[in-house]
Structure formats: C-alpha cells, structure tokens
Amino acid sequence: MTNTTGRHVTVGDGQFVVGGERRNLYGGAVHYWRLDREKWSSILDSVKAMGFNMISIYMPWETHEVAKGEFDFSGNKDVDAFLTLCEEKGLAIVARPGPQINSELTWFGYPKRILENERLHARNAKGGRTVLTQVPKPIPALNYAADEFFEETALWYDAICAILAKHAYPNGGLVAAQVDNEMAYFFCINAYSADFSDASLRNYRTFLLGKYGSFEGLKAAHRLDVTSLDEVDPPRRFAASTREEIPRYADWIEYRETYLIDSMDRLAGMMRDRGLGQIALFHNYPHPLGPGGAASGFTTPFNIAKLEEKLDFVGFDIYSRKELYGHVKTVGSYVAATSRYPYIPEFIAGVWPWYLNPGELYDEEFVTKAALAQGIKGFSRYMLVERDKWLDSPIRRDGRVREDHAAMFSAANRMQVAGRFADLQRDSSVLLLANREYDRLEAASVLVSFPGDFLETPSGFSEYANPLTISEDELGFEKAPQLEKSEWFARFHGSLVSSGHDFLLSDTSLDPKRWAAYRVVVLTTLDYLDAETQQALVAYAAAGGTVVIGPRVPRLDSIMRPCTVLADAMTAGAERIHLASGTEDASAIVMRACTQAGVATIGKNDQRLDVIVHSDRKDTARKVVFVVNPTPEAIEARVSVGADLVSATELWGGATVTPFGDVIACSMKPYSIHVYECQTA
Fold this sequence. Notes:
alpha/beta
C-alpha cells in the first residue's frame, strides 16, 4: 500500500478516518442507471431517512460504453449528476467502477466486445476457456494477467476516474473506491480451472524465481529435472503420492493468491494515477464458504492480509440466513481479526430471484446483529433499492418504501449510532489461526471439478475444495494432511467454544506482530510447517504469549527439509508452548493454556448459546454484550460476563434488565440476538 502520510482518508485499527474525523460507513447500493432520473432525489431521501450515511455506487463499463473509447454519461447514466446529488444530501460516497461489477448484468459489467476477445480469456488446465456459469447465460472468465486487459481497462478508467476525481474528498463526498469486484477467477475457485493462459504461466514462473531466489533453488524445492525455466509447468491435476511433491502443488495455489493480489495492485495503481490517490481503495472477496454457507476452508485463493499490503482494506461479502449463524460468525470474526477496517462490502438486503432459499426479513435482522457481534464496523447493503433481477429491497424502484423493511434497517442504524459501536473493541484474548499452507494443500488435492456454483446447485457440491472432493492419499505421512488439518481446526474451535473463551479467527498470513494483541495463539501443526511460522511461534512465546499447537510438533519445513525450530524450543523447556496430541486432551490443553494466560471465561447455562463481549475504548465501565440463540428452539438464558454489572439495557428494543452480579438472565426466542449495553461496577 502507498504511504498514508498526508492523505485525506486513512484506515487502521478498525477506524475509517476522513480529514482527521472518524466516520462510520453504514450505507448501501443504489444503481442510478437502472432508475428513472426523476426518482433519484426522493430515493436518496428515503435512504437517508433510514439512517444510512453512505451510498455505494456501481458504475458499469458495459452500460456507458457506446463504442471503444466512447462513453455515454447522459440521462439516467449521468453519474456526475448522481454524485453531486448524493453530496447535496450529505451522503458519503463509495465508488465501484469495476472493471468487473457483476450486479447481475449479463456481461458482468464488461462491454460485450471484451468478452468476445479470445486473447483476454482465462484458460483451464486443458487449455480450454474458463467459463462462468451464471444467469442469464454463461460468459468466459477473463485473463487478469494479460497486458491487453489492462490497456482496455485504461480506456474506461480514463473516462470514469476523470469524473470521480472531481468528487474525491476533500473536493467532494467520495471517500473510498473499490478496485474491481469479487475477484475470484469468476467463481471458478477450483485449482485447475484457471488461469493457465500464456501470460499467467509467465507470471507463475517469475513468482517461483522470486520465491526461491534462483532457478537452481526452484529445481531443488520442486525436485525438477529441467534445463530451462520455460520447462517449468504448473500441475494440471492432482497426482501427488509423496511428501516431496507437496511444494510444487502448494506453490501453484500460492501463486493463484498472488495472481489476484498482483492484478488488484495493478488496477489500484491505475486508479491512483487518475486522481484517486487521496481516498481509500479497497476490494471485496466473495464470501469464502461458498454460496449458502457450504462447509470449506476459508483462506485460499483469498488472502486479506497480503492484499492489504497493496490496498487500504479488504472485506468479505455476506449473503446468509438465520440458520447459518456459524457461517456469519466465521466470516465476520475472520474479517474483524484480519482487516484494518472490518467492513462488509456487500451485506444482504433483498435477494436475487434465482436464490434457492431467500429467507425472510427477520433473517436480515438476525444476520445484521450477528455480524455486528463479531466486530464488523461498517457495511454496504446490497441492494437498498429494488430493480430488475433483484427483489424485496427496502425501497422499490419507483421510490415507494416497504415500511416494515425500513423500520428494521432504521432500528439497526439507530442501534449502532446510539450504542457507539465505533468505540467498541471485542474482548477476545485468543486468536485461532487457520494454517494457510495446509489449506493450500487441500485446495490443490481436489479431484473433481465443478462449475462455479454461482447458481448454488441443489447437489450441495461446491467449487470450493472439501472432504467430499479431495484426495485421501496420505502422501507418505501416517495420515492425509489435507484431511487431518480440518479435523484439528474443528477440534480446537470446539474446545474454545466449550471452554467459554472468546476467540477471533485469522490465518498464518497475518503479520505475527499482530499476534501481540492476544494472550493465546492456537494453530494446527502437522508433520511440516514453514520455518518462518515456526520461528514466529517461538518468538511469540518467548515474549510472553501462550501457544497451543497440535496434534504434532513439526520436524520438516514447507519444502520437506528437516526443520526443528519448534521441537528444539520445546525440548529446551519452553513453558508457554502447549501440545495437544490426542482427542481426549485437546480441550484440557486449551483450558490449561488459557488459564495460564489469564484469559477471562464467559459463563453460560446452555452450550448452544454464543456470548460475545465488547468494551468501550473510551469508557472502561461500559460494555456491550451480545447474547445469541442460533437454534430453532427457545432458551432461558443465564450468562455471566466476568464483571459485576450495575445496569443492562437491550439496545434494539430498549428494555431494561436487572443483572445479578455479573449475570444477565433473559428469555431467548428461536434465532434471536439480544444486545445489552451494560455499566460495570
């Protein structure tokens, strides 16, 4: 990321700061080009009346381009006028100029001529076109490694950024801009779906040279017998049977992460060069568990921590229902622990017509509270205004308001403002890390390729790798690491839940310097582990942190060379590194480590409840407590928060509750969340 010194908009420590003043971004999408221009003003008035303070504006290249390099910004396409109107209403602006915007457009926001250019097509492992299956028709996925793609995008950026720069803060209300949209190989997540184009393969080889420092180093790591770099080819299907083959497969998956990062970095540089260098630039990855919350890993090919080295912040989108609280908790917790500014760039409001399980308005209330409980600080509702290919938004496309919807969204916004959520910091002293290098092996070991499940296929299969579709080969180990890693992550997750210790999620790409904010770090470790990660764990423990690893102490590094950094530290008597080596002792080890580190325990009379406590950064006596019943059954809840309470007020409904010491007692309806503002003694 570029240096933020002297910039007008900065992001960090969960804060979004404009001209030295902290702002909250609570807004939503309004598609100006899909609406009658004479309705714009009344629609924005309705948005503001619900308590939103920001408009997220998608700007479709395909709609504005009339011929190559020629653009129409007249009538209801007059984005300059729409931006001015937002400013007149006192609304902050977040621009989303693509080049890809999706928005349920037939061509995903690209002019058709771009998709017809075969030189710009991404390629699968067999050399064929990578195809996105979507409504109303499939389209080819594009090649973000090709110089020609960026040259074409420059024509669009020249036109749209000239308009945006006029409105960029401090000249206007534009405070942030999104760099592309949900870049995920066009939902072709499968490791062998994309991108095997010539341009991508050149970048892959450059990536390998950079990682290993030399051609000889690369050959040694991959156990290759080749004489030139051009002979180095990525794996095109999973066929490994030995541990020595793992680096080659894992490096292809790491490169796929880098491919996304490098392309977003290049687009961001183009935007900064065209006048947007003073505002925040961000990206949104699609929600990482698959549409509908399919079980899967939640790291690769996405890498929030590394992409934030290039952009100001990165978020995951959430489209979910009340039955999928675990999905919302995972995504929200991960973003809260990993991103500089925990933001949901697309947060469900209404639904696309072909969604299999659209849910009801109450689902959106529940999911809103669930996300805020995790520590999310801002979001953009998709969509605030209904239009073609989108249903059940709070505002109809003719400007009429759905009063029940407006009441719910208004209540959510009031709660965030009245509850001073921007001042809150989650009381989590434990960080549970996903092991990204094992997730990469899981992604590489997929044996079955499904089309991107943009349509959420009823089969339940996903384009994300999972135990149903990956190899079970042990690869020379006693157990298959690509399967065992998920079992142990789930075991540590369950142990923390049952022990009553609140925790946040991230992964091993997070800078270890940020581990210092936590008292305990928990990580699945198998037979091998990157040497730098081993060293970081030892250093964290030496500095006073507590580490839980397991089920084994690794004795190899990531390219299968002997590496006993962790083992040596434990042999030398490192008292703050704990090994959980079996099913029966995982919970006990986690409890012992948290006790050693002085981690507070949250009490609850029913293990099905989730309780999350936030403290006020400015008022040490103030806490906000979320009590979650994520089940279809009513629960008489009693929860203890570890501090004597003087008062408790439920922020959504306004009811006061009389606490008993540190205990809050309440009747929880099915799928309900209570939000208590508490004063401690």
